[in-house]
Amino acid sequence: MEDIFILQSLLIINSILVVDLNLMVLLVVLRMNFFYLDVSKPFKTTDSDPIPWIDLTFTGGPLKTDATACIGGKNNDIIFIFGGISKFDDLNAYQSFVNQFDTNKQQWINITSVGNVPTNRFDISCANFDNGLIAIFSGNGLNITNDLWIFNTLTLTWNLNNAINAPLPMSGYCAVTLSDGNILYIGESSARKSAVYMSMNYSTLGPPPPSRQLFSAVLSFI
Ligand SMILES: *[C@@H]1O[C@H](CO)[C@@H](O)[C@H](O)[C@H]1NC(C)=O
Ligand SMILES: *[C@@H]1O[C@H](CO)[C@@H](O)[C@H](O)[C@H]1NC(C)=O
Ligand SMILES: *[C@@H]1O[C@H](CO)[C@@H](O)[C@H](O)[C@H]1NC(C)=O
Predict the structure, then answer these.
(1) Whose CA is nearest to atom 13 of ligand 1?
(2) Which ligand 2 atom sits nearest the alpha carbon of residue 120?
(3) Is the Cβ atom of 33 under 6 angstroms away from ligand 1?
(4) What is this structure's pTM?
(5) Which member of 43, 80, 111, 129 has the greatest number of CB atoms within 10 A?
(6) Where does the sequence pass through the membrane (predicted)?
(7) Helices H / strands E in the chain, number of each
(8) How far is the C-alpha of 91 from the C-alpha of 62, rounded, in Å?
(9) Could you tell me the distance, in angstroms and rounded to a whole number, from the CA of residue 110 to the centre of ligand 1?
(10) What b/e readout covers 37-48, taking b as 16+ CB neighbours within 10 angstroms?
């Protein structure tokens, strides 16, 4: 429950990005600030006790908002940040579509992939799945369709997936990888539906939550 409390309190802040590493570390990128929180060590989560953030701003890093972050690499110790906006008045100004942060070397790299690559987009939510792959669906930006892209974090290459029955273009949604390998896409900005399931034919039980956008969700086994 403590972890969930921490996530909820973080989400109050605007333009924030939270990554849950397998290493039990939370990372946050907010404008030019970059912090991490080691949740493998106990700490108090009451209002009067400061959360023990560790400042990594000195490592540099991209200036972005409305981006998304997932982990990857051979040991799942690399953070990949996709898309986002670097300048609110110019959607073509962005600092590399993919930025990589190596948590061991504490080093940033702008990743440039060649060939068929996604156009820049924001208000997306990435989803990790098997073998270091990350899925990115649709998003907001110029000429964005309901395209499903797969980024291979081992080879740093992109593949456009032939997603059958893909939902309509959406942004502001949240992607969650379920334990059966399917990706759940919740919410979206067009408010067409409150939940869209992809690659699955499940139907939800009970009344769905009201529609929403630009939020975050984690899979919990409590
Ligand atoms: C990444 O690209 C941006 C924009 O061109 C640049 O400002 C930044 O220094 C680059 N970062 C690295 C680590 O190369
Ligand atoms: C979007 O489409 C227009 C019209 O085809 C084109 O001129 C423009 O370059 C495209 N923009 C991007 C970012 O692909
Ligand atoms: C999902 O259900 C729809 C409607 O029942 C059906 O047409 C479709 O073939 C099903 N898709 C899969 C992948 O089973």
Answers:
(1) 109
(2) 13
(3) no
(4) 0.77
(5) 80
(6) 6-30
(7) 1, 15
(8) 15
(9) 6
(10) bebeeeeeeeee
Give the span between the Cα atoms of 151 and 181, in whole angstroms.
Answer: 16
C-alpha span between 210 and 207 (Å, rounded):
9
pLDDT in tens, the chain (222 residues): 333 333 332 322 233 444 444 444 455 544 567 888 888 888 887 888 888 888 888 998 888 888 999 999 999 999 999 999 887 666 666 789 999 999 999 999 999 998 899 999 999 999 998 899 999 999 998 889 999 999 999 999 999 998 888 888 889 889 999 888 889 888 777 644 444 433 333 455 666 666 677 888 888 876
CA torsion 213-181-28-50 (nearest 10°) is 100
Compute, in angstroms, the gap from residue 120 CA to the centroid of ligand 2: 11
**C-beta 213 within 6 A of ligand 2:** no
Secondary element (H or E) of residue 121: none
Q: Which residues of 163-194 are buried (b: 16+ CB within 10 A; e: fewer)?
A: beebbeebbbbbbebeeeeebbbbbbeeeebe
Q: How many residues does the chain have?
A: 222
Cα–Cα distance for residue pair 68/125, rounded to 1 Å = 5
Structural domains of the chain, with CATH? 2-161 (2.120.10.80)
9-14 long-range Cβ contacts below 8 angstroms, 24+ apart: 9/45, 11/215, 11/216
In the chain, the N- to C-terminal Cα span, in Å, equals 8
Atom of ligand 2 nearest to the CA of 143: 1
